[in-house]
Amino acid sequence: MGKIKCAVVGVGNCFAGLVQGIEYYKQHPEQQVIGVMHPVMGNYSIHDIDFVAAFDVDSKKVGTKLSDAVYAEPNKVKWVPELSTMQDVTVMQSPQLDGVGHYVEKVVMPVPQKPIEDLRKEAIRELKDKKVEILVSYLPVGSEAATKFWAQVCLDAKIGFVNCMPSFIASVPEWAKKFEESQIPIIGDDIKGQVGATIVHRTLANLCDQRGTKIEKTYQINVGGNTDFLSMKEQDRLQSKKISKTESVQSQLSQRLPDENIYVGPSDFIPFLSNTKLMFMRIEGRMWANIPYNMEVRLEVDDKANSAGIVIDAIRYCKIALDRKIGGPLIGPSAWLMKHPPKQFKDAQARQMAEDFEKGN
Ligand SMILES: NC(=O)c1ccc[n+]([C@@H]2O[C@H](COP(=O)([O-])OP(=O)(O)OC[C@H]3O[C@@H](n4cnc5c(N)ncnc54)[C@H](O)[C@@H]3O)[C@@H](O)[C@H]2O)c1
Asked: Quick check: CB of 56 below 6 Å from ligand 1?
């Protein structure tokens, strides 16, 4: 099978983690590829993913080689000293729209803006010239307008879309319909980390539920020190992220918890944590004879390793759909890989659906 030609919008920490991970395995061929569910999927290995175009707004990234932009501040991922790929890819300008929030203004310095229609034409030309098949969006939380811009660019350029961030496209019926009618695959929305806060919380909530206890209250608090967490200090940008994370947990319960008894959210920015994310979760409930119980979990992960291991599969599911000429939201892969898919399933079922999709069933 050939390479998977991809483009990225948002050359931030998540993207840095994705491509530095691929480089890490390239430099250590003797090592087993861990941290990914499928070393090979549909005949595509992790080394078949090729980023041939990129878009950002930061003056430290736009106009530079993609292999260098990955290391530009405020990115913090430095797992390998340099990249052997993407040296011939120049980062192009994306429209800023609502991409740069109040708190990140001091660390992301946007280039002077060009008219949006010029940027749209340049983007479509670049995607066509480079024969891009899939666009991966790592736009910041709260970039509603920028996400819609890039979703429309995917439709216009006729390329697949992997929406890793929590502005809803795949899970909004009007957008889903547009992708379906254009026969373009989309996986979204909002990556569910490999062993991240969401999947751990969902799994334990589902366990308590299925074992017959009654969950009465639950919370999940997350803190971190990268630009993603800095952006999330701005409550107005957070609405869809909170919906995405909360509904992901609610969907695993046989009875919804009243809103006042569930709190799930990114909660603060602690600069020295950098890409380390800490999650604190608590479930309170009752079991036989109305006797109370509770549990607490503390999870510490590198936020970027946690997301890259999933995106690497999302890209390949999207490519398989393109090969098979399947368009619209990919229901099984989205349910398994994303927090806010078009349709929620229990994780075991979602996994089975994703596996069945890969096998062509
Ligand atoms: N575990 C995870 O890391 C995880 C999980 C789920 C979802 N996500 C989401 O993935 C997204 C990316 O996360 P990140 O840590 O890489 O963020 P980041 O802040 O490190 O990177 C965002 C990048 O987007 C660029 N940008 C800002 N506005 C833009 C615009 N209008 N057009 C193009 N580029 C623009 C910034 O310059 C920066 O390079 C976030 O929305 C995050 O919530 C991450």
From this structure: yes
Domains identified in the chain, total number: 2
Tokens of 288: 């036989």
Do 273 and 137 share a structural domain? no
Residues 104, 175, single domain; the answer is yes
pLDDT digits (tens, 9 = 90+) for 14-28: 999 999 999 999 999
State residue 2's pLDDT score: 67
Task: Mark whether 216 and 342 lie in a shared domain.
Answer: no
* Full DSSP string of 253-315: SSSPPPGGGEEEEEEEE-GGGTTEEEEEEEEEEEEGGGEEEEEEEEEEEEHHHHHHHHHHHHH
Residues 118-150: tens digit of each pLDDT: 999 999 999 999 999 999 999 999 999 999 999
252 and 137 part of one domain: no
Cβ–ligand 1 distance for 218 under 6 Å, the answer: no
Based on the fold, state whether residues 140 and 29 are members of the same structural domain: yes
Query: Are 181 and 62 within one domain?
Result: yes
Q: What integer pLDDT is reported at residue 264 of this predicted model?
A: 94
Q: Which of 345, 279, 342, 347 is nearest to 310 (CA)?
A: 347
Evaluate: CB of 154 within 6 angstroms of ligand 1. no
Report CA-CA distances (Å) from 145 to 95, 121, 173: 10, 17, 17
Distances (CA, A) of 169 to 10, 17, 101, 145, 150: 17, 24, 20, 11, 10
Q: Is 265 found in the same domain as 312?
A: no
Specify whether the CB–CB gap between 53 and 7 falls below 8 A.
yes
The residue range of the domain holding 47 is: 4-192+305-359
Residue 341 and residue 248: Cα distance in Å, rounded?
9
Ligand 1 contacts CB of residue 190 (under 6 A): yes
Is the distance from the beta carbon of residue 64 to the nearest atom of ligand 1 less than 6 Å?
A: no
Q: Which CATH number does the domain housing residue 258 bear? A: 3.30.360.10
- Residues of the chain under the 50 pLDDT cut: none
CA 11–ligand 1 middle distance (angstroms): 7
